Amino acid sequence: MPLRYLIWDEAGKIVKEGDDRSTLATFPSQNNHFLWLDIENHDKEEIEWLGKVFNFHSLALEDCIILNQRSKLEEYDGYMFFVLHLSSLDSEGRIETEELHIFLGSQFIVSAHNKPMEIVDSCIARCKGEPHTLEKGCDFIFYMLSDTLVDRYFPLLDKIEDELDDLEDKVISNPTREFLSKIFLLRQDLIALRKIVGPLREVFSLIYRRDYGLIKEKTFLYIRDVHDHLIRIHDMIDTYRDMMGNMLDVYLSTVSNNLNQVMKRLTLIATIFMPLGFVVGFFGMNFERIPFDSNILLLLALFTCLLLPSGMIFWFYRHKWF
């Protein structure tokens, strides 16, 4: 289990950092120090150990063990528990989601995740490089993590928007079944994103509407900015979903229009040859006095077979039916 921690004092000076568990066992008694503990690739035993050290509730620990939880905020005695989701594109261009579990107390913040997360690494590096961030407290670190996590959605949505624009141009110019499959895949991704961002927005809406003592007023202003970003992200997803619906309508309309054009041409061809069938059928009847054994009537029949389709083609062309 990769384990790392930072311990700092009220001035934001890092007192100790490392991965020694024995130091964490005595931390709760250090009233003038603050702690950020990060656990990666955890299993059931490590989470149970975490619960013993910090006296976390069993329900919160269970949510850390059993993944695929919904984004949520739960308040316990002396700390808050968060489940947040980070979305990205996998190697095949599909949406994949990672869970980040956060325990936030007045003097500690514990982050747990099952996979390496770049946002956690960047925030730890920022705390080391900018000690004044630690001086602002554990709630500000929670803001840093959540803000970095939410900001990762914007590049993801930009990629989806670029793909939508490119797909829209291709659908209009040359609609094929391949594009229809892409439309449905993108639609599924947007639905999945909406299911992820919706609960995530609810979490920060709760913080925005309620006064939690663990989040100071100065930090609350930053949290409100994260909430605004989530509202914007949610609105962008809804907009892209509407675009997908419109694109599907355009695809179906274009395919239907192309089919109508094909049927129109086939109908014109059939109409052109229809009188020819009558002429050759009439003069081809096996009666005694037809075709009267006359060369003039034969030439007249041939002339009619040429004149009728030529005249119909000219008439269709004049009326722009072709």
Outline of this structure?
This protein is α+β, with helices and mostly antiparallel strands and 322 residues long. The chain has ten helices and seven strands.
Please identify, by name, the CATH architecture of the domain at 1-136 and 147-151.
2-Layer Sandwich
Which stretches of 5+ consecutive residues score pLDDT under 50?
none
| Annotation, overall tally of beta strands | 7
Summarize the amount of helix as a percent range.
Answer: 55-70%
Classification by helices and strands: alpha+beta
Global outline: rod-shaped
CATH topology of the domain at 1-136 and 147-151: Beta Polymerase, domain 2
Mean pLDDT: 82
- Strand residues, percent: 15-25%
Widest sheet, order of strands: 2-1-3-7-6-5-4
How many helices?
10
Report how far apart the termini are: 72 Å
Q: Mind telling me the CATH superfamily name of the domain at 1-136 and 147-151? A: CorA soluble domain-like
Rg (CA only): 36 Å
CATH class of the domain at 1-136 and 147-151: Alpha Beta
User: Can you write the helix and strand succession as a string?
Assistant: EEHEHHEEEEHHHHHHH
**Biggest beta sheet attributes:** 7 strands, mixed
